[in-house]
Amino acid sequence: MREAAIVLRRELRSYFVSPIAYVFGVLFLGVQLYFATAGWEDGGQASAAAFFQLMSYLFLLFLPALTMRLWAEERKLGTLELLMTFPVKVSHLIAGKFFAAVAFLALILLLTLGVPITLATYGNLDWGPVIGAYAATILMASAYLAVGMFWSSMTRDQIVAMLLTLVTLAALFLLGFPLFLAFVTEWGIPAWFVDLLEGISPFRYFVSILRGVVDTRDIVYYLCFCGFFLYANYLVLQGRRVKG
Predict the structure, then answer these.
(1) What is the C-alpha to C-alpha distance for residues 244 and 227, in angstroms, rounded to an integer?
(2) Which residues make Cβ contacts (< 8 Å) with residue 82, sequence separation at least 6?
(3) Based on C-alpha coordinates, what's the Rg of the chain?
(4) Can you list the alpha helix ranges (DSSP code H) found in 38-126?
(5) Pick from 33-47, 58-72, 214-228: least confident
(6) CA-CA to 121 of 20 to 30 Å: which in 12, 173, 209, 236?
(7) H or E segment at 89?
């Protein structure tokens, strides 16, 4: 995995020299902290659960912009063809880029620790669910990243990659949203099919962990979800390598 580690370091370095990463970080943190603390001054109840719930919505909007460049930019600049000529396994390239993006997001999440620390200072905060919620957020963000990487490998146009990722994530999010499921149930669709639709959505498993219930099935789901899209990413890039 030495090659994957080299790619990881290269990608992490690119995040800190790219204005997109800084714009992403500032906007995400600014919007997240604004909405998380908006009700505090008016006497609203400060809730860690609401804070993480909001984060899941923001990732849905912000992560497509972060992932759109991962492969599309390489194709546009012509560096992807160069990478394909190196004696490096495609799986190592994908792993390096994927874990670099996860590490960058983990750093962004680390900067949000001020909110739960503030809640703990002025109230009785149970840190167990908070740690679980951070883990759930990383898992869900990883799933979103895997989807974004796949679509980024399919096109050289970053905007197209972003829009395809956004549409896919929005559809997956809707499948786990209670109001949408209730609306679908009213159509007379069988309950087993509704359960199947809900079972596809990453949002369902995020909410499950957010409640403080750590189920191995939730973790297995995220591992399988990420594995599916990363393998699809592998097939696309391996196909390009074979074609030359």
Answers:
(1) 25
(2) none
(3) 19
(4) 48-67, 72-77, 79-85, 90-110, 114-122
(5) 33-47
(6) 209
(7) none
CA gap 40, 183 in Å, rounded: 33
Would you tell me how many other CB atoms lie within 10 Å of the CB of residue 149?
Answer: 25
pLDDT of residue 244: 59
DSSP-assigned letters across all residues of 187-218: TT--HHHHHHHHHH-HHHHHHHHHTT---HHH
């620390």: which residue's tokens? 117
Other C-beta atoms within 10 Å of 240: how many? 16
Is the distance from CB of 235 to CB of 90 less than 8 angstroms?
no
**The whole model's pTM is what?**
0.87
DSSP string, 113-163: THHHHHHHHHS---HHHHHHHHHHHHHHHHHHHHHHHHHHHH-S-HHHHHH
